[in-house]
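Worked example

This section walks through a single chain of length 381. The input is the sequence exactly as stored; nothing has been trimmed or padded.
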Amino acid sequence: MAEEVKEKLLETEEVRQRIADLKTKVGEMADYIKIGERREKLAALEAQQAEPDFWNNQNKAREVIAATNAERAYTIPFDQLTKSVEDAEVMLELAGMEEGEALQAALKDTVAECAKADEFFAKLRMQSLLGGKFDAYNVFVKLHAGQGGTEACDWVQMLYRMYQRYAEDQGWKVEEYDIQPGEEAGLKDVYFRIEGPFAYGTMKAERGIHRLVRISPFDANKRRQTSFASVETVAEIADDIDVEIKDEDLRIDTYRSGGAGGQHVNKTDSAVRLTHLPTGIVVACQKERSQHMNKEKAMNMLRAQLYEYYEDQKRAEMDRFYGAKSENGWGSQIRSYVFCPYTMVKDLRTQYETSDVNGVMDGHIQPFIEAWLQQQAAKGK
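Given that input, the structure is written out below as tokens.
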């Protein structure tokens, strides 16, 4: 009986120490993210939104809303973290009044609350790594099939699904701009926009060449195939950032939007493709039924890509244009996804790896992103 009491006391002390460690983390995080300053900034932004003429300037209003969401991305998980730690502390005190099975159940609930606090802390730690100029902005993403033919097009479609699932888990919105089907299957190209706090800061970790190794579903002999796809990301920049686009430098093509057909098929050339002649940058949008709206969205994407391009020129680091400007094929991948003869996903930049291929393809890519952001933070980038 004495041993049992001793064991329960030891278990209670372990939980108490875990709560104490969490309280220390809360204090350190509050200083690190400057939570007081963020609360003041958030209050000022919310006051702007309450003004009666707030929507008179819609572009400015959208910027204020984006800034508000960026601050809430810190304050909300911090408040959740603080509340979870406080709740765990109260639960432990109440557990001290119990005995036997009731004590065990109370300690189990307290440990579960500590686990919730750990999740909120991990989210904040992730946010603290995102301090770049445009990290809080939305992001434009382009996926392009590389070496591998039909296999590569199928790989693009798989990656698109992976990023859709990831965005859904983050509570972000995915807006498809343009899609080019492969000749036999999959997608040759897909342009899309992700809207959400720190979407660019997070998704920039995915920029580069992604390599797939698997038994081909398109090969009757079931041979192992290697396919490549590139992921390009640029921040959706604010309207007040000046990017000059001359009319004579722009070629505008219109075409009929793709679709499933039927009575609702688009019978007009509403889709728009823009080519910036000096740089060769091409963007397209066919999401809207209005040609004018498609052109406006395509122009926003072009501005973002040109800004990234010109910034890279200034820094004389052209490998930062959509990530490393390398061949979409052998020897240039940032991450390998191996389905056969074994299962493994490995990031060749950080060496982070997992055997949970199915989980990764279902959008569980956060550990890869965090590992890369931590690596960049350690390098001072």
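What to look for: Confidence is low (pLDDT under 50) at residues 1-6, 260-265, 317-326.
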